[in-house]
Amino acid sequence: MADSSAERIKANNKRFREANETIQGKADELDADMQRLPFLCECPVEDCVEVLQLTRAQYAEIREHGDHYVTVAGHEQAELSIAEVVARHDGYVVIEKTA
User: How far is the C-alpha of 6 from the C-alpha of 21, rounded, in Å?
Assistant: First the structure.
């Protein structure tokens, strides 16, 4: 994979991760009484607008590992050249960056 493609993937992942951290932070700040929160798919597809409904515990488990990202099932294909699937769940996939 060209370095520019790998860098683009990493930049997109970072952008979506930061947005999800903001979502979680605001929900915590507002003490939102929601079983599931809306999180953005952290895939590298630039025009992806998929939203995942995860519990706080599910998202926290993913975030325990700084190199783990969450994507909608099927979107992991876009980055398998620099990542591998570490878990599959109903509706979402957890990937680990290997590069």
Answer: 22
